[in-house]
Amino acid sequence: MNEGLGKKWSPQQISGSLTDLFPGDMSMRVSHETIYQALFLQAKGELRTQLSLALRTGRTRRIVPPRPVAARGRIAGMVSISERPKEADDRAVPGFWEGDLILGKGCKSQIATLVERQTRFVMLVRIPYDRSAERVAYLLAAKMETLPRFLRDSLTWDQGKELSSHEKFTVRSGMPVYFCDPRSPWQRGANENTNGLLRQYFPKETDLSGYSQAELDAVAAELNDRPRQTLGWKSPRYKLDELLLGASDASTT
Fold first, then answer.
1. Which of 207, 66, 189, 48 is nearest to 129 (CA)?
2. Which end of the chain has fewer surrounding CB within 10 Å, N or C?
3. Domain range spanning residue 90?
4. Tens digit of each residue's pLDDT (9 = 90 or more) over 133-188
5. pLDDT range class, residue 42, cuts 50, 70, 90
6. pLDDT at 46
7. pTM of the full predicted structure?
8. How far apart are CA 82 and CA 216, in angstroms?
9. In a domain, 69, yes or no
10. Count of structural domains within the chain
């Protein structure tokens, strides 16, 4: 970004160039508006003077263009949780996941949380820069692809617009998405409980943008090693390993 400003590129040009430089990496996307906000929020004193010279407008205060009123109504192509296979309800079959975002200070940073309903196994996904639907769909699908196919049955989410690109997620992961009813967090009970546990690590006023994926994996590992009463005092990792071992034994017979 600094190199682009030094060449008198606009934030729009910097944002656009990331697509060419990193064509297959959706984590390397950032909107020009995010670049503007970061620059103007951080610039003080002499740095603010330098910023006014670097930006072609010469302004040292961001004038945010008016945004259109957000479209209301249902997410296009949304499938209700009422259509989710009934075997997901009693947790007898593995592979049904629940997901959500936890937000950081000022709702300006986010982490995706994924919980498998039967084992309560947790995966965390770093969502850098912003929670645009395309970015969220890409990063969630990439995480799900690390699992064996039998553990990828479906994903249940609330009606947040961050997953309005759910069809792209489904194409890549092979997992349909089912959406909860409005204001019904209990329909993702395992995920809601996990998000509460995660606030021990990420209090509500925390800036979540500074955490690496490796740090998030370490937090998930700690949660997955905790014994759970709902699992007969076994840990989520133990229960997942049981499933993986069983699948391995079945494939060799």
1. 207
2. C
3. 81-251
4. 999 999 999 999 999 999 999 999 999 999 999 999 999 999 999 999 999 999 99
5. low
6. 47
7. 0.73
8. 32
9. no
10. 2
